Amino acid sequence: MPPQHNVKHIKIAIVGAGSVGVTTAYALLLNGLAAEIVLIDIDKNRALGEVMDLSHAAHFAQARVRAGEYEDCAGSAAVIITAGVNQKPGQTRLDLVKTNYALFQDVVPKIAQHAPDTILVVATNPVDVLTHAAHQLSGFPVERVLGSGTAMDTTRFRHELGKYFGVNPRNVHAVIVGEHGDSQLAVWSLATISGMRLKDYCQQKGVEFSEAAMEECSKRTKEAAYEIIRRKGKTNYGVASVLVSILEPIITDADAIMTVSRVGTYGGVEDVALSMPCKLNRHGAHQDVPLLLSKSEQEALRQSALSIKEVLSSLTAS
Ligand SMILES: NC(=O)c1ccc[n+]([C@@H]2O[C@H](COP(=O)([O-])OP(=O)(O)OC[C@H]3O[C@@H](n4cnc5c(N)ncnc54)[C@H](O)[C@@H]3O)[C@@H](O)[C@H]2O)c1
Question: What is catalysed by this protein (predicted)?
Answer without folding.
Answer: (S)-lactate + NAD(+) = pyruvate + NADH + H(+)
